[in-house]
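Why do we care about 3D structure at all? Because function follows from shape, and shape follows, mostly, from sequence. That is the central idea of this module. The next example makes it concrete: a single protein chain, its amino acid sequence, and then its structure expressed as tokens.
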Amino acid sequence: MPAALTIPTPRTRLFDYSKHWAECYGKAEFLPTTRAAMDALGWDSCDIIIVTGDAYVDHPSFGMALIGRLLEDQGFRVGIIAQPDWRSADPFRELGEPNLFFGVAAGNMDSMINRYTADRKVRSDDAYTPGGEGGSRPDRCSIVYAQRCREAYPEAPIVLGGIEASLRRIAHYDYWQDSVRRSILLDAAADLLVYGNAERAIVEIAHRLARGDRLERMTDIRGTAFVRSDTPKRWTEVDSTRIDRPGRVERVANPYINVRDMSPEEQRRREEALAGFEPQASDAAEDALRAVSIPKLNRSRTVVRLPSFEKVRNDKVLYAHASRVLHLETNPGNARALVQKHGDVDLWLNPPPVPLSTEEMDYVYGMPFARVPHPDYGDAKVPAWEMIRFSVNIMRGCFGGCTFCSITEHEGRIIQNRSPESILNEVEEIRDKVPGFTGVISDLGGPTANMYRLACKSKTIEAACRRPSCVYPGVCKNLNTDHSSLTQLYRDARELPGIKKVLIGSGVRYDLAVEDPEYVKELVTHHVGGYLKIAPEHTEDGPLDKMMKPGIGTYDKFREMFEQFSAEAGKEQYLIPYFIAAHPGTTDDDMLNLALWLKKNGFRADQVQAFYPSPMATATAMYRSGKNPLRKVGYKTDSVDTAKTPEQRRLHKAFLRYHDPVNWPQIRDALRQMGRGDLIGDAEHHLIPSTQPDAGDQYRSPRRKNSAKSHQRRKKGGRMQTQHTGLPPRDDGSQG
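And the structure:
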């Protein structure tokens, strides 16, 4: 019997490496950004230089600071080049040539999502730039930065990382060009790409380079992508280049063939095949020709060949097929390497990185962060830091599998947790160190608010599982949904001296929360600052199925619990639900039904968003191909309804804001074309009025609270009106 699958053991834990010799220089208050800062530290050179599209904020929520401090603790001299002027190579020479490598990242967001709206309009702001002004980084930031690094120092190795590299590590659909682009590794002409949370890979790369190894020899590091010319010896290649062919089809092995007529290689393969053959007593002649089961391949020496870049660029169904295969190979316990031909070379992707243990998470987040922007920015505000400076990241990963979201592709679906002691220490550090702290922690969360310490009940099952979601179409019976550790963490945090309140700003996964009423009671009673964000996304089964989100009935159950515990606490609190317009699988009728539901329940959404096809997401494959990669893909399988034209996308957004008179003319025309003119009128059951307001009448935004009638309606029926809160867009990697 084959050994049970388990999550692989890392070769070396992060804190077990021998320190590099430059450890003797100690720790810097801020990682140097200029030659003068290097001189002040006594450095003649940097071992590693990180080039980033974000402002340098020395805080663990900023990738360059997290990786930089980790490498510093390993004993390396690390410099930062933040938001350089990319129009020449001179700013990339500021710190000199690195002894080991340049680490290039676009920042905490994909640079195209950061720069453009879902309607492909240029944003005027950038939350990761001092002053919040847009334009401080180029489009396709990682590519441009890598090219400038190469121009500045042609011999210096270049390693790509960050979310832009993660989501573009393979041939991917680019929404802004409306075409499939090849891997960013090839466009950037970098030497190596690290994807996902890259601590393990980047530390191993640094130490191996310091020992004299070369990047082109580092083909065995998980969570990396690189270019090679062919498949190495002793590896088995599984062919998944065609539709409905998930793997290589072996010839039927006949156990009674005359082996003297076979070559030595054929004899070896026959013996391997016969290892799984158990003859049964039978006189039937056809039994002699029975197909022999092929033994399971060694997954650590198996690579799955995807359709080539040229094929997925020209064939939309093959693109959906490739997306399906890729997403089936994301569990670090059973994922195989992937290879994809790009022209005359192969792009090779090693399996995902091994998740960090709690001890390693504590180590990474325990670095001596200054927790503030670099002093060179003076009084200029960095909006992203302003939003998170009083928050604590308690975990990583998400097993929700929402198809429009890119968290799973980047952070993985296995939750990586910090210890309560580490989290509480950070809360105290914020209290004692961060300027402007008033006693309110704005968030204890992560990709979701309430997946802390939730995991599969069986490590063996977890390592073998290939499901894209642990909570769809329902919560898996093998998933532990006990929130008691998180509930206790909330209680311990709010009891710390000097902490007046602990709020939860991350989105709550309500289908998990309803499994633990004690958690919901704790959350609603003590940790909601008037509003709580949740994301039902839609009300109709069609789009919800394509999103892998629960039905609206689960939302109703959570809403009832929220209202009950709010009333028991004597608090007037509101839910802020998020909805997506124009998601693949959504018809005009679906959006109409959502609008009717919103009106019936007294919701007036002031913040709405259209589906944003981010690179590599499953929903993006639906948008590109019109097929559903969650199921078997074929040329004749059912198509997915997709709103692509600007007119239809605007209509879907208009339905979400049915209450805004600006949208009424468009909705009226659509309702008449849909044969639903009965919804136009001035009665309570109508969706919109039959006439526009007079020119002198002003539309009153739903954020205003001076309507006694609406206030009484909210109190009487528990109907809650969404208010504009000034909260940032969701940080899910896809919905900008």
